[in-house]
Specification:
There is one protein chain. This protein is mostly helical and about 140 residues long. It contains 6 helices and 2 strands; from the N terminus they run H-H-H-H-E-H-E-H. It folds into 2 domains: about 30 residues; about 90 residues. Strands 1-2 form a two-stranded parallel sheet. About 10% of the residues are buried.
Length: about 140
Amino acid sequence: MSTVPLVTAPIAINTHTSQNQQDIALVDEKILALQSQIRGLSQRRNELIPVGRLFPEVLVEIFSYLKREWWTGPSCKVPLVLKLTHVSRRWRAVALDCPVLWNEIFFQNETYVAKWLERSQSSNLYISVEATRRHEGTIQKVFE
């Protein structure tokens, strides 16, 4: 059995020449510009649909009605109020500008407590505690 000698050719490991890097940077800039245009068009589209034209006060009423649903559900890992703030920039601004939407604090998930306290500003707080040892430190911080 004879073996065939392997012929190896030099492989260029660094294929990124200066021109390639400039081309990549140019493409990246174009991608960022297009993404910005898409965000702008999406925002404009949201303003044109009927729900996008609701007055902020109406949105607050709707959000307030949904408030009792924020921590319910079989697999509620993310409160509904956070989901509402991710619908559009406008909905986020309206929700963040309304302290009473954030004044109910549930200790089922301590991840959100600090943000709720901050966003509730000076409105009256309604606190619900499902206390276990792991919540002890968080509860103590709230009452300090």
